[in-house]
Structures are given as C-alpha cells and as structure tokens.
Amino acid sequence: MQVRASLREVLQRFQDDERFKNHITYWKTIPAQSARTVPFPDDLDWKIRNTLQQQGISAVYTHQAAAFAHVRQGRNVVTVTPTASGKSLCYHLPVLQRLTEAPETRTLYLFPTKALAQDQKSELQALVEEAGLPIASETYDGDTPSSTRQKIRTAGNIVITNPDMLHTAILPHHTQWVSFFEHLEYVVIDELHTYRGVFGSHVANVLRRLKRIAAYYGGAPQFICTSATIANPQELAERLIEAPVEVVDNNGAPSATKHFLFYNPPVVNHRLNIRRSALLEARDIAQQFLQNRIQTIIFARSRVRVELLLTYLQHRQLGAPPIRAYRGGYLPSERREIERGLRQGDILGVVSTNALELGIDIGQLEACVITGYPGSIASTWQQAGRAGRRQGESVVVLIGGSTPTDQYVLQHPEYFFGRSPETARINPDNLIILVDHLKCAAYELPFTDGERFGGVEVGGILEFLRDAQILHHAQGKWFWMSDAFPAHEISLRSASQENVVIIDITHRGSERVMGEMDRFSALTLLHEEAIYLHHAEQFQVEKLDYAEKKAYVRAVQVDYYTDANLAVELRVLSEDATTPGERIAFGLGEVSVHAMATIFKKIKLETHENIGSGPIHLPAEELHTSAAWMTFSEDLFHQMGPADLEQGLVGLAHVFQHVAPLFVLCDPADLHVVAQRKAVHSGEPTIFLYDRYPGGVGLSEQVYHDFERLLTEAQSVIEDCPCEAGCPACTGMGSARSKLLARTLLNHARQGGGERVG
Amino acid sequence: MSDDRAVLLQERLARYRAHLGMATDHGERLLKRRETPPSALAESDGVTTVERRFSLSDRHGRYRLGQFRDAVSAWQTVDADHPLSAPHLAAEDLLFFDTETTGLHHGAGTLIFLLGYARLLDEAIVVRQHFLASPAAEKDLYATFLEGARGGQHLVTYNGKAFDWPLVCSRHALLRREVPDLPNFGHFDLLPACRRLWESELPSCRLAVVEREKLEVIRVGDIPGSMAPAQYFAYLRKQDFETIRPVLAHNVMDVLSLITLYTHLSVLIAGYRRREGITNRERMAVSRWYESLGQWALAGEGYQIVAESAGPWQLAARVALGRCLKRQGDWQGSLSTWEACLPHLQVAPTREAVLVEVAKIYEHRLGDNASAYRYACQARDAWRAKWRALRQPPASPCPHDRRLARLQAKLGCQGSVEQGGTRNMAMDGR
Ligand SMILES: [Zn+2]
Asked: How far is B19 from chain A (nearest CA, A)?
C-alpha cells in the first residue's frame, strides 16, 4: 500500500533529490501571519451584525474596519490587500450600512468584466437576503433583459455593471436614469489595478463623464476602491477619480506559512541557451503533489498548454480523484461545482489559464504551480494567491520558460521579491482618448464656455470639434450636432477608432465578433496566417480584409507562435524633454512612425526554433505617438564602423524590448523598440522606445525617467546570460558578434551618462 | 491657453485626425482662421413658430381632411374596445404629431429641432410647427410647444410610442426644472396598425410607402426624412432659413398624412363590414385583430363576410369563424362550420388542428364518443402525413394517443390502441 507524503515531506524531497534541487534557483519562506481583528464598528446596523455573526464572523479585519471608517467620514478610499482577504466587505459594509439609514441611496458597483460582476452579485444578494434588508441589487449588462432594465433604472439600490456598459449604455442615456443619478452616493471600483494602460486611460475619462453627469443632477459620489498589490495604488486611484484618496493597506487577514520556489529548467542546448520545456517540468513537479493527494492548481499560459498538461497528468493519475481544466467563460455554476469538488476532495487538481487570475473565487489550495512567468509581478502574486489556506502551509512553484522575460525574472529573484510590484500607468490626457471622450461628454450634455473636463482645459478641442462640424457653438454652449452616437464608435479597450474587427469563423453558421484591434497592431498580429491569441486560445488568421477592416480567424491547436518583422521609419516631430550628456543623451517627445510589415516567422513554442516563414502584403501604416530615445555620440561611427555600430544597436534594442516592459508594467507588444544608426532628427546613433498606442499612454515617459536603470538591467541581462555570442534571451541572434558589440555600446554609455535637465 | 500652445494643439489634433476616425484633410481647413460666429440677431430669436391653416374640404390623398371627423364618429358605431377606438374623444382632442430630430438614437445627444402637429381648430385644420432656431433655446421650444398644444388630449403618431414621445420625455427630463410638466397625453400609434393590416403585402411599413400604396398621397419636391438632420446642421452653419424650409414642408406633409391615415384606418377597422373600399385580405387582418383582443362577435362577423365570398381567403375565414363561434359557446355553429370545411382542408397542420377541435366538441360537449374517436383517428393520420411529408421521424410521440386511448376506453373497446410513435412510422415507411 502506498504511503502518502505530506506537503512538508514533498518539500523535503525537492531539497534532497538531484532531479529537482539543482534547478531550484531560489527558495523563499514567507512566514505566517495571524489574524488581526477589531470589534464591529459602533455604528454598524444590528441586522448586518447578526448576519455576519450567523456566518461565523464576530469581528472585522483591521483593513475592513479602516475602510469602513474612511467611507463613513466621507473620504474616498482604496484598499490594497492580497487575494482572499475579505476585500469585498470593505465596500459591502459601508454601502449596506448607508442603505439601512437612507434607503433611497443608490450605489454603482464597477467590475472590469461581466463574470466578476455576476460572482459579486450572488455574494451580495446572499448577504442582503440574510440580513432581511429591502435592497434591490442587480447586474446591468448586455445580458440584462429589457423588462428588468427599466426596473433597475428606476429602483435599483445597487447597480452592478462594467465600464463598457457605463460608457455605452448608462451615461449616454442618463435622462432615463434621473433618479439614479439624483441619489448616487457611492461608486465602488473593484480590481482597480486592472485599470491601467489604454483601458485605464479610457476608464479615467468615463469616470470624468460620470462625475460630470452626477454633478448635473446635484451629486458628487464618493469612491470606494479595492486593488491588488501594485506600487502606486494611491497615485492610480487619484489619477482615475481625480480626487484625494486614502490608502488602506493594514491587511488583517490571517495567512499560514508559504513557500515560494523559483525553478529554472536545465539548459539542454548551451550554444542557443535552450532549456527543457517548462511544460514537462510542470508535469513532473505537479505530479509530486498530486500523487500524494495534495490539492494543486496549475497555471499555464495558453489553452493549448492547459490541454496538454491536463492530458499528461490524467495519464499518470489513473484511479485518483480527477483533475479538471478551467478556462475563461465558465458559468458561475460550473465554477461552484469545481469549488465544491475541491472542498469535498472529489477534485484533486485544476489546470487553468490565467482566466482564473482575476478575483474569481474557487477556494484555496495547498499547492500552486505556475508554468512560465505570467508577465507581471502583480499577476504572479494573484496566481500565487490561489495557494495558501488560513491554516497549514502552502507552496508556490514558479517554473521559468525560455523567453527572455522569464529568464530575467528567474535569475533576478530580487526583482520579484525585493522591489515593490509594478507601477500602474495611465494617461487620461492622451489626446486621442481625451478627444473621444470629450465627444461622448458633449453628446451627454452641452459644454459651457470655460468648463473643464476633469482637470483639463478643453476650449481648444471643442473648437476643433466645431470645425469638424461635430459641435455647434451658440450662446456660450457647445451642442452636439451630428447624427452619430459617439460611444458606439469608441472601444475602451483600444486607443484608436480605426480598428480591425476580429471575426471567429470556426463554427459555420455561428460566426461571431470576438474583439477588435488597432490597425497598427494588426500589421504584425493579424496578417494572414498569424496565430492570434484570445483568452489563451489560439486562432489562425484565415483572411485579413484590410479595406473592410475585418480579420477572419479560426480556432487551431498548434505548437508555434508567429512573429512579424516591421520595417519602421521613425521621425521626431517634437522634443518635449532632453537629458544631454557627453557620450549619451536621452530624449522624450512626439514621433511619427511609418511602419510596414514585411515577413513573418513561425516559431516553436518551447524551443523558439524558427520553423517557417512567409511574406506579408499589407499597406504601410502611419502612427503618431510619444517616444523616449537614447542617443549615442557621433564619434562612435569612427570608433566602431557603421556595420558594427548597427549590429550593436540592434542587439541592445533586442534586450530593451524584453527588459523595458518588466519595468513599466506593460505587455511587450505595447512598447516597440527601434534602432537607427543615423536618426533623422539628429544624425546620431539612436534607440527609440515608442508607445504602440497613438498619442501614447505614458509608457515612454516612464522609460525616459528610468533610462539609467534600464541600462543597468540591460547590462546585467547581457552579462548574466550563459550563451556565448548572443541568443534570443539577450541580444538576439542577428549576428555572431551581437553580444560583444552591444556590450561595447553599453560600456561606452556607462562611462558617461548624462545630467538630467529635462 | 497661450496662442502658441493653442496653435500647437490644433496642429496635433490635425495630425491625429486619422486616429480619431475622421477623414484627413491635412489640416488645411483646420488651421485656417475660423469663420465668425453666427450673428447674435439670428440667435436671440431662439424658437420660430410657423402656423398654416387648411380648409376641411382640402383633399390630402384619398380623403378630404374634414373626413377625419367622420372617422372619429365611426368608432361610435362599433362597440369595440380597440386600441384605435376613441369613444370618449372629440375630433378637437386629437393632435396629429410628428418630430424632426438630429439622429435616430435615443441618447441624450439627440435633439428634437422641430415639433409639428395638426389639429382641428375653429372649423379648420391648423398645422403648427415649433422650430428650434438655436439649440440654446430648447427650453423655449418646449415652453412654446406646451402652450401651443394646450387643449390637445390625445396624440396620433407614426412610431411615436417607440421613438418620438420617449425622446420628447428624454429632452424634457433635462429641462424639467425650467418648464412645466408634460401633459398626460393619450396616444394612438398608427405604425402597429399598418403592420397588422399591410405587412404581408407592402415591401415595408415606412410612412412613405403606406402613403403611396394606400393613401394616394403624392409628394412633389419633398426631401426624404432621413435628410433632415443634415439640413438642420447646414442651417445652423449658414443661419439661412431657406435651408430648413424643405424640412418644415416635409413635416407638414407628415402630419397631414397622419390625418388621412387615421381616417383610412378607422374606415377599415370600424367600418370593416362595408362591402366597398376594403379588401378581403384587409378584412381578415381586421378580424384577426378583433380576435386577438377577445372580441369574438366582431371578429366572427368579419370572418363571416369573407367566408361567404369566393376567393383565396374563404377557407381560412371559415376555420377562423368556427373558432369564434366556439369561443361564443355556439358549439353546433362551430361544428357545422368546421365539418363543412374539412373536406377542403388539405394543409396538414390546420387540418390536424381542426380535427382535434371537432373531436373535442363531440367528446366534451355533445357526448358523442364514437364521432370523437373517428375524428381523433383522422387527426392522428394527419399528424402522420405531416411527418411523412417532412421525410423524417417524428420529433416527439404522437400527441393524439392519449385522446384515442381515453375514447377507446369510453367506447369499451377491447384490444390495444395502435401506438402512433416511431415504430409505426418505420412500418409506414416500408
Ligand atoms: Zn544570451
């Protein structure tokens, strides 16, 4: 009879067994924390108290009490706590409390997705029902039947929705929501950290519109936010709502000891620095847990990998409780079933895409295996948060993939543990996003001369819109004068209106629009034969109708991704800030990018081998955006020669492309890097990093301010890489000397950095 | 903002035109100095009210305008609880109402720039139009409308329940503190009526189509309603009243057509028993409408007329007549009506339904189980024939089996009832 090992014994095995111990590059033990609670707030209604007590809650955590107190004193608040720390009570309690005092009060709950909204509705309704409070709470989204909509508009105490609905359905129709806006006291924003980049910049403007409409009806709602751990929750919240915000981070929820292991698969090809497949390593490590009946969640980065892992593990688990897959789009009932299965021991393991990352509750497990770095510190912590019970130890194993980003993180644990998580950037004043929402706002209510939008002076933009015959100015007011409905033309998920619509044609007869993408990104991501990832599922582009702006895609399962080459001409239009120096200078400004896709390569997922290529026939695109750049002195021409200089720049650009997104918290595709031997504006060797979104969302500003650190990190990537002459994980494989030449350039730069004056 | 920065901003905006989904014109028009704003003189006169009178003897399409008074009184001749019936209304109470707007969306940015209505006033038809000469004067627009429409009780519109009136309410909500409340108008929306009567024969139920095909209204030099927003935008730019005049003329035609349409619909619906001026197709549609309202006697009268005339609607009218007679408790009447049309009924679903109805009357009302059984068997045969015609096995067991079994038991027959399920179908197929 097989004797099962405990979690502790499995961990001991990892420390002893040659198979594992040599590849565990870092082992951190996070000590247990006991619960810190305080009695219920004095002013908490007895009905709410009773209900909590019936659920076994006799006190509140310190952070819940702090959030409650701030809200009661009329302040905006953002609570920053890890997964499963009871954060939803931080807003439910003050909102319900207020409703016991003033039943006519209205509250808006905003969640980034429909699924989260549905989850929270069930939780909230259960609470309200048990407390016997006469509170109507309902989701308002695309699935809400029109008969219910009317009722929600006129009588919903708590309206649960997402920013897209607020943008297209609620604000433009505010005249149907008069009593809602007249009594709107609170706006709850959950998962605040997801509102960053383009999406966050849009949402900030939607909130400007919300506040403007609320003010029109005589209100000024208070904001109650929660966020996962990021470096700048207060800054983000204050930029989003444009008002002072108190931060609550005294997490009082208990946690048990947690082990966090970094596991880097062994190198199997030294010349090319190729490592053993993370997927196979994940299988072997997960098996150590599963065969000892330790409940485990395994994260993989794509649906294909989820399926593969599931198959591997099921093969080895005959007779044991089943292992289930979890992907995006599951209904709450299906999640409940998995959760129940885990609780009752009917389900031993779950293999999931990052669909589970976002706040959706499936309970807590003992072990978590993350296959490949999820892309940001914040989302890694969110996935890791799936393991960790109130009592008993838990373990998280992060297995490195062979991408440069993965390798950087695996080899620099201090990046992950040492520094605070990433900064979430938004740029609500991105001119394109701002103009788009100004149109929506003007549609909703005419602007008055001198009126500001958020903090922005908008007279010039209103004039522009008048000249474009969209607004009409009369008697000090700016009237919407077009038969268009602007919110329908503006997607919160992309920066420009000129989008390519992505149509899934997998199932004949039930073709569906699955998303859209800006034209510039479409050049490299939606060309014919491209593999397009959607919620971790693979699709192949069958046809791109560029004139009609439609891409037709079909679901596939392949073991490669595609990577397109973009021929770029970049011109500096204006220099907004410069940091001059003797050998190297930095700049920031607006650029025009003329880009043309040339060819694409098919690259094998695990090994990064090039397994095929093809041409791309698409017209050139023009992009106006912001960029940061570093310029080397001209004398490098003579010192290195033009050919070597170019190769060095290309190698360095390759490193930046992988390292920079780590420091500005963005998708690598959102920040492009281009090297020019002779920049048009200065004639000097230059590397540009530009925002992919028209107008920029603040990524290049941050690069500009962090250039020194970027150089330091780039240097350590090159020095620490075990390859000989350059590999995909560092300077790329453009030439046999790229590593050497990039190093030469860096040394040159490091000897004389600039004084910052910009 | 300093001048330099203002120019820079305009330059950036011009560069971003493509990203903003606007046509690029390389900023030429944008950077040139803008025209002077419209003169204050034109603006101060924020709302223009135009009034036109028409004689009751003026003809608009197939009726004289004054005939709508006969239409109102025609409703007094039928004892019908009908959505277009106006037993308590006088002709003077009706407001034939239509708007012109800056768009077709319902959002807060769609403006009504013209409110037009026709009504009977001092023995004439008066069309009054309130035109929003400046969007800043919306408050005055609704104030003058509420004043001008005073005394009206009941709106007559075309799609006004779904579009015009909700939009009026939406605009009014924005001004609710500055203007009096909207009256609680009654409302006849004529679009649903047109759909019921003519959807199957007209290419669409747009007012222009109905005018042409049913009302004999001919418009000369009319601009289409879809041009109205663009005309209004052009008017605002040029401040030239001539630009908007065609829209006003179009709106006059619209409200006059509402009078003719209401007259015609009343003639058809209230006067559906008349031999002239109504087709059997229309009479069927009117009768179906009465039937859906539970007005069995009125519906039956209409069906009766069609049933007695030769033509394509005869059989359908007889089947429907049987239904109405049954609803009124006239079992014998409905039975004889249905039995008479059964030999002519070939279409499987209708035939099957009628057979079931007949079987039910024999079983439950007349206690004649043998006849009921005979008809139920025929119903089962019709059901089988339907599936045979579809060339596929039935999706569910035969719905008549239970009735057959029950009747067989009542008749005291021995031997099992033939099952109507798939097994038999397979045998039939051999
Ligand atoms: Zn390398």
From this structure: 5
Find out whether A537 and A515 touch, Cβ atoms under 8 Å: no
Q: What is the span of the domain harbouring residue A244?
A: 37-248
Q: Which of A457, A469, A592 sits opposite B233 (nearest CB)?
A: A469
Q: Which segments of chain A have a pLDDT < 70? A: 1-3, 272, 303-304, 317-319, 327-332, 355-363, 389-391, 419-421, 494-497, 535-536, 605-608, 734, 752-758
Please give the single-letter amino acid code of residue B398.
C
Rounded-to-integer distance, Cα A168 and Cα B28, Å:
33
Phi, psi for A469 (deg, rounded to 5): 60, 40
Residues B126, B226 within the same domain: yes
Q: For B21, which residue in chain A has the nearest alpha carbon? A: A497
Greater confidence, B100 or A665? B100
Yes or no, beta carbons of A172 and B233 under 8 Å apart: no
Residue whose pair of structure tokens reads 């509402």 in the numeric block: B258
Q: For residue B22, which residues of chain A lie inside 8 Å, CB to CB?
A: 468
DSSP assignment of A695-708:
T--SHHHHHHHTHH
The DSSP code sequence of A322-347 is PEEEE-TT--HHHHHHHHHHHHHTS-
Mutate to test the interface with B, among A180, A216, A467 (most CBs of B within 10 A): A467
| B236·A472 Cβ contact <8 A | yes
* Six-digit token string for A51: 């209900």
Burial environment of residue A447 by CB neighbours within 10 A (0 to 12, 13 to 18, 19 or more): buried
Both A361 and A474 in one domain: the answer is no
- pLDDT of A285 reads 94
Query: Which CATH number is B250's domain given?
Result: 3.30.420.10
CB–CB of A259/A394 below 8 Å? yes
Q: Do A624 and B37 touch (CB under 8 A)?
A: no
Q: Among residues A520, A516, A602, which one has the least CA distance to residue A551?
A: A516
Q: Which of A181, A439, A453, A480 to mutate to test the interface with B (most CBs of B within 10 A)?
A: A480
How far apart CA A440 and CA A205 sit, in angstroms, is 10
Domain presence at residue B379: yes
Distance from CA of B202 to the nearest CA of A (A): 28
Contact across the interface for B107 and A432, Cβ inside 8 Å: no
The answer to whether A121 and A135 are in contact (CB under 8 A) is: no
Where do the H-state alpha helices sit in A445-515?
A: 459-467, 486-489
**A414 contact partners, CB below 8 Å, separation of at least 6:** none
Distance between CA B95 and CA B152 in Å, rounded? Answer: 6
Q: Say whether A172 and B103 touch across the interface (CB within 8 A).
A: no
The residue type at A634: E
pLDDT per residue over A620-638, tens digit each? Answer: 888 889 999 999 988 888 8
ipTM of predicted complex = 0.78
State which residues form the domain around B361. 296-428
Distance between Cα A398 and ligand 1 center (Å):
21
What average pLDDT does chain B have?
Answer: 84
DSSP 3-state assignment of B423? helix
> Is A1 a member of any domain?
no
Query: Is the entire prediction scored with pTM above 0.95?
Result: no
* Average pLDDT of span B230-245: 92
Task: Answer with the residue of higher pLDDT: A145 or B78.
Answer: A145
Is A479–B12 a contact, with Cβ atoms under 8 angstroms apart?
A: no
- B27 to A439, A467, A498, A620, B24: CA distances (angstroms): 19, 11, 18, 21, 7
CA–CA gap between residue A572 and residue A570 (Å, rounded): 7
* The last residue of a domain, from among A226, A248, A270: A248
